[in-house]
């Protein structure tokens, strides 16, 4: 059994080679046994649009039922709909079969037990349970339920888009295509569909809105249709990409600024969480609007845990995960975040490009990736954290090393999902950006001279 498929935020691997039918069945039994120990009788199961997902869901459900758990199968849905079902149905545990934005031959599982998304130690505990064969036994029931209409009704009963907006929706052939267009039409928008047919081969572009190249078709469509907004979704619908009128990409940390201003207008003093990859302007925007800013580790399950700990009403990551606890349930939901963004934008009669353009601006890189051999990313980061020299900077080491200077910042951290280092830089001007990059370049090459850095 390949131990590396049990990752920081989920279980993920290549179908057939790593995720074998036997392992998936065992994962179902392990999750079911863990649910039993928590007093959970019912587990909701959903799946994305990948070609392997129906069979993996079947194997998982068999394992869950063999552990004595009753299963509610909600079919092919975006991950946020699975999360919604654990609040809406009489069950607070669920498993989503999804490979998210990984290549088509991958798949995996995102797990919620008793309302808590499993991460790190909890996922390793499942691995140990399988190795030791510690399972409960029984014969659980199976029920099929469709919750998509309830999900859409719950959103449209609360969110108000106060003027008619034209929205281009790019689902990248992921499972969000089964829900997003009808949701935004139900909110009163004119919707232009782009790659909304669910196809697990992802024939048009990869469903990862954090990569600028994957937003090219959306950018063109926003321009061609003179649309007010473009919304892009990852493979399972829990990460959001945004394109403003005229075709400008708006990164999620800037989207979070606008959403934070809106939430804080009704909830002065509320906590807003953002990850270490996000803009330094977020701290000031949140503070200026009466909120409490908290920077935290990257990772959807880690952010959710921090929200529960702090009582935060809003959180976001640069990767596009956005979490609302004000008027929603506190999980990452790109479809709902898109609806809330449309609500905010509809209250302002300026173009969306002007609205986003009025927010603090700086020179920033996208997320930069440096491939390293499996496991090396941790060793490099340990050595950097132990001896990093960034004169005049405020260092943050909760997740990698982030150095904040008067005129910008840089970050390097180990990816929790792939063998690579993640870097990002932001500064007041290009000269400051180059200076900060050069400092990081010197420090990284001092530790590992063979690194091929993209700057």
Question: What is the strand and helix layout of this fold?
Answer:
Blueprint: E1 11-14, H1 21-37, E2 42-47, H2 53-66, E3 70-76, H3 79-88, E4 94-97, E5 106-113, E6 116-117, H4 121-132, E7 142-144, H5 148-156, E8 166-170, H6 180-186, E9 190-194, H7 216-224, E10 229-233, E11 240-244, E12 249-250, H8 252-266, E13 271-275, H9 281-288, E14 292-296, H10 300-310, E15 314-316, E16 322-324, H11 334-346, H12 352-357, E17 363-364, E18 368-371, H13 376-387, E19 394-396, E20 401-405, E21 408-414, E22 420-427, H14 430-447
Parallel strand pairs: 2-3, 2-4, 3-7, 8-9, 8-10, 13-14, 13-15
Antiparallel strand pairs: 1-5, 4-5, 5-6, 10-11, 11-12, 15-16, 17-22, 18-22, 19-20, 20-21, 21-22
Helix pairs in contact: 1-2, 1-4, 8-9
Short recap of the structure:
Helices cover 35% and strands 22% of the residues. It has 455 residues and is an alpha/beta fold. The strands form 4 sheets. Strands 1, 2, 3, 4, 5, 6 and 7 form a 7-stranded mixed sheet that branches.
